[in-house]
Amino acid sequence: MKRALEKNSLEWTVFGVALILLVATLAHLVREAVTAGASPPEVVVQLGTPKRVEEGFQVPVTVANRGDHTAEDLSVTITLALTAEREEAVLTIAFLPPRSRRDGWVTFRGDPRGGELQVGPVGYASP
Amino acid sequence: MTLRATKAPVGRTTGESVREYGRGVAGGLLFSLPLLYTAEVWWAGTTMEAPRQLAYLAITFLLLLGYNRYAGLHPDSSWTEVGIDSVEELGLGLVLSALILYTLGRIGGQQHIDDNLGRIVVEAMTIAIGVSVGTAQLGGGESEPGMAGTDRVTFGGQLVLSCCGAVLFAANVAPTQEVGVLGTEMSPLRLIGVAVISLFLGAVILHHSDFRGAQRWVRADTIGAMLRGTVVTYAVALGVSAAILWVFGRLDGVGVNTIVGQTIVLGFPAALGASAGRLLLQ
Q1: pLDDT tens digit at each of 282 positions of chain B
Q2: Residues of B in contact with A64 (CB under 8 A)
Q3: What does pTM read for this prediction?
Q4: H or E stretch covering A59
Q5: Which residue among B80, B112, B113 sits closest to A5, beta carbon to beta carbon?
């Protein structure tokens, strides 16, 4: 049976906005699907400038994933080698999606300026 | 999600539409809030690949088309209207999902757009089904669905509604780690136990408990018909269970035993949804 669609202007507006949102979402997902690479997660760690805090010295850590897959259960070890001792801090991140970054901080008792900061072993799984 | 209970084909006033959308929003959040508050769902949005998100969208759209066609709507709604309603519901789902996730601090500028969009899409699908159900079911008075002589028990229609009920109930449980733990650790005997309980509950709800709508929607006069209805309903539940598990990546890289185990474990809530849920959704 044929009859005209009975819709008021509000309903047409809601439909229009919904259609635009849906098409935009689909377009983005299709583009994402087409351009997606297949490289495993590739994690890059960068250390910032240490800052003096009450507990010691705080070092900003930026962890980025340049691969095409999410890194899961990511753990980054950062070591501070001083002349007398060695300090180790571990930063864990549950999920690091592709082309994303997370900021974190590690704190050492010793002064990083008097020693050497190193990014130690980095481990992660791919879900 | 438009309801036409009036006899004459008259369009609704803006006020009526606003009230209808209000019901949709309420229903959408009512059914999906557990998912919006579940960390595993945010992570699923982060890790789910684009093709799978597209598949999830397509499946949800089909379910919405089916639900809008077979429940709540006036029986003479055209497919065009059903399509328009389904698009509206998906759009509302996306907006609500983005709004709530942003308010909860689960999406934002510091994350990549793919990550944000993934989270929005994964959450929006259940919200959209909730919006659809809410609009049709939460209305009072004259917009009571299923009126105007829609007393038709078509097999296809009931199948679609069983799917919707199963999805609504099982989707809240599927992404949690517990399903994986149970599916892996339960012995075959216990799994059989869960399957038997699921089947038994389905039979009781559909045929023996005077459940709301059971008399009207489930016609089974012989033992054979009852058995058939029970088995078909459980099969729908298992199918939906496996599909949802696949969407959430729970079947990736696991052995056959784990696949079967998880499907049966999730098949329990899915079976409740496919039987009791389906009767309530009519």
Answers
A1: 454 444 444 567 888 888 889 989 998 999 889 999 999 899 888 888 899 999 999 999 999 998 888 875 555 678 888 899 999 999 999 999 999 999 999 998 777 888 899 999 999 999 999 999 888 887 765 444 444 444 555 788 888 889 999 998 898 889 888 999 999 999 999 999 999 999 999 998 888 777 777 777 776 677 888 888 899 999 999 999 999 999 998 998 889 999 999 999 999 999 999 998 888 877
A2: none
A3: 0.82
A4: strand A56-65
A5: B80
Q: How far is CA B88 from CA A20, A26, B65, B128, B132, in A?
A: 10, 15, 11, 9, 9
Which of A14, A30, A126 should one mutate to test binding to chain B, selecting the residue with the greatest count of B CBs within 10 A? A14
User: Is A11 in Cβ contact with B17 (below 8 Å)?
Assistant: yes
Fold of A43-125: Immunoglobulin-like (2.60.40)
CA-based nearest distance B197→chain A, Å? 33
Nearest to B106 by CA among B26, B41, B181: B41
The domain ranges of chain A are 7-36, 43-125
Check if the beta carbon of residue A86 is closer than 8 Å to that of residue A80: yes
Distance CA B7, CA B148 (A): 9
